[in-house]
Amino acid sequence: MGTLLGAFTIVGFESAANLAEETNEPARVVPRAMWQAIVSVGALGMLFLIAITALLGDVGTMTASPTPIADVITRVLGPVVGSLLLLLVIISIFACGLVILMSGTRLVWAMSRDERFPGWQMLHRIHPTLRTPVNATILVSVVGEAILSIFSRDTDALFVLFSAATLLPTIIYTVSVLMYAIRRNSLPPSQGFSLGRWEKPVVTLALLWLVFELTIFRDESFFKPWLYVLIMLAIGGVYLVWLLATRGRHGLAMPDMIAVDAILDADKGAEYDTAAH
Hints:
- By secondary structure, the protein is mostly helical.
- It contains ten helices and no strands.
């Protein structure tokens, strides 16, 4: 579990980076959002692990318990404070769920804006009153509920979903870093952020760490998470083949990054023009 802490932080800084892309000057905002997420999650998570480990008590008893963390908190802090802390944990999990919902919505909307998502004609729209991508939000919510309903009768659903949600970003980051390492000399220079002479060692260490994280998931207990991830990748692969068949490689060229605010400003300008006419 200690080695998986680094994998869990991937989801944290990916969400920060994901949402920060839809801001002004993303080249400056995204790196800052990522390192702030890593430092905060890493520091707080490590302190929590150290405290729980130091106060664990009888390892055999805690191992047999279905809720060892909750048992340690209640035993050390008492039933009242322990219950309040666990309530805070529930609120935190709910807040994290909202962040994931928002991240998924942002991805669906951004891909639809770039005409890269099925049904982009409807999903790229911004609600004229709420100024939010309502259609994309509804889709992500429905898909999320559908996934939860599929696993609703599975006794280890939480373990499967948490593991899959950790495994999939690790695979994505491994592929992304590997592609960057291969093509970095042919990419345009970054504006707003650069590792300078530290780029090679950081990329090398990142690849080694990501490979190490993937080796953690080689145990047979991760069979269901691997199956879930492979199904998701297969769906994405089928859609990619369809895009290539209908648009060709030139149709997959990425457009310029557009901020949400820019689209909203353009919509406001159009409304003002309509009102003036």
